[in-house]
Amino acid sequence: MDGEPVLISVYVPFVVTTVLTVLAPRMARRLTPRPAAWALACAALVTAVGWAGSLALLAFTGIAQIPQVAAEGHWSAAAVRAQDPVYVTVAVVGAVVLAAGVGNLGVAAFRQVRQIVRFRKECAELPGDTELSVLDDDAPLAFALPGAPGRIVVSRGMLRRLGNEERAALLAHERAHLRGRHHLFLGLWQLAAALNPLLSPLAKAGAFALERWADEEAAVRVGDRTVVARAVGRAALASAGAASPAVLAATGGEVPQRVRALLAPPPARRSLPFAAGALLLAVCCASLANAASDSDELVDSAKRVRCAELLASTVAQPAGAPRPGAAFHCGPHHGGEHRS
Question: Is 16 within 8 Å of 47 (Cβ atoms)?
């Protein structure tokens, strides 16, 4: 086995992540919102795992060339260097980037758990026990509050600014957020972007797709796309400058683009972009699996070389001298060390 396939395989997830980060947000705005949101969620999950896995393999195959590490692992550093010549500097950078990403992921996960707890507490404190809770507040507010079950919160100030049909459209929009569990999509994108900051544009496009998804469902429920467009526009104008306590709101996202989309016919279903994205994700998964397999084979080969070196040094030593390889078993690697 030469080193070239390992190097190519380990870098493919980086390339796939970059391509999807550039193309996916643009394509998602032109596709049917619901499948676009699902596609972006799958892309974020696969590319985040591929990114972390490639960094880990890159770091390992470089650090494995350090003599002290090779001695602890009982393999030949020279054999690793010959078969997979990853510079130690590159490996260290990969390890640092991976450690920073994992740290950011832990912080983001903690914040999400704290947010979920806050949402549940706020749901329990809202007046009434129905899905809709109307706040006696002049500030124009309207948002969906995830929970078990979730609640739709609207202020009297917002209701006064909308007509009857627009109110129905607004509630249908927020109800679509709860029914689709859109907060889970947002959480996934936020965690993926924390692990890999390159996925931040994809997360932003995903949030827009969720608002468009809720818009389209509201249009189906109300039966008039123009009414939903008017409700979204008026709600956004009314709440301009007001801070919303939740992320799932009809006033979120790029409102002018959403209004234009609602005033146009529903987006046509297209399968080619999804097929191309699925192919890229399949390439990412296959490359990562191939790199992991090559890395395991590399360690096995390096251990066999080290075993041969130990046996050769044992044969060359006088009788009765200590055997340097006595504690090492020269068998296959199979994912771990073997000691007698």
Answer: yes
